[in-house]
Write a structure and sequence with these properties.
Structural class: mainly beta
Strand order of the largest sheet: 5-6-7-2-3-17-10-14
Largest sheet: 8 strands, antiparallel
Number of domains: 1
Helix content: under 10%
Oligomer: single chain
Radius of gyration: 19 Å
Shape: elongated
Length: 242
């Protein structure tokens, strides 16, 4: 691919999603799903069974992952998905073009007999961080003049979390409601299994270049490629609606 002389390349990598921290207390079950870390979960009960799905009909296996490709045609991003964890299989890519984004469609299924209530969605203090790329970060695409000169290789100056957040944003959509680091309210449930059909809600994770004048001003200072990493996002479902 021939690079625009005014172009800049941005790489999006290191996206990790996982579920961890299942606990039982005060007769209520809860499951925590976290973007940015991983752990094993053992519910120890058949009436509480919540997990990730790539096809919207069955919960993934606990050890053998399914895969989920990015929604955007031609984007190489792909995830490995188990019942409790999601990790990056292939690097996804973004540019500093307005409207540039990468997203993944998944589901959270409830295969138990209890309704699952959305209890909290909490973003990390730094929803995204930017670091300078290395030779191993090869999944890149062209950017625009907003990203400065077309120097090849890694960016040479550090980028603060605040400046990174000016360029890129993260949105987690759960059952049609969009959550960001500034969201202050939430609601939602996953119905219990009906006959042999699990309850289901769609989930879409999106990372996007903001395309604002503020974003373009930061991008114009770059002199090489960068890596954008999504911070932790904790999503908690509970069987108790109080």
């Amino acid at each position: 691919m021939e690079k625009d002389k005014k172009g800049r390349v941005i790489a999006i990598v290191a996206l990790v999603i996982a579920v961890f921290g299942l606990s039982l207390g005060f007769a209520a079950f809860s499951t925590r799903l976290s973007i940015g870390s991983s752990a094993d979960v053992n519910t120890g009960a058949t009436n509480w069974n919540v997990g990730f799905s790539t096809n919207g009909s069955t919960i993934e296996d606990t050890t053998t992952p399914g895969t989920k490709a990015a929604n955007e045609n031609g984007n190489p991003g792909e995830l490995n998905v188990t019942k409790y964890t999601i990790s990056q299989k292939t690097n996804a890519t973004l540019s500093t073009t307005e409207g540039s984004s990468v997203s993944y469609n998944l589901n959270i299924l409830n295969n138990g007999s209890l309704t699952a209530y959305l209890d909290s969605v909490t973003f990390d203090t730094n929803p995204v961080t930017c670091s300078n790329s290395t030779s191993g970060n090869s999944s890149v695409i062209e950017g625009t003049s907003a990203a400065g000169t077309s120097t090849t290789g890694a960016n040479t100056s550090s980028i603060s979390p605040a400046d990174c957040a000016k360029m890129f944003g993260v949105t987690l959509s759960i059952d049609g409601t969009n959550y960001t680091s500034t969201s202050t309210s939430l609601s939602g449930t996953i119905p219990a299994k009906a006959n042999s059909t699990p309850g289901s809600v769609p989930v879409v994770l999106t990372v996007a270049y903001k395309g604002t004048s503020e974003a373009d001003a930061v991008a114009a200072t770059l002199d090489g490629n960068i890596v954008v990493t999504v911070g932790n996002i904790s999503v908690v479902y509970t069987s108790n609606n109080s």
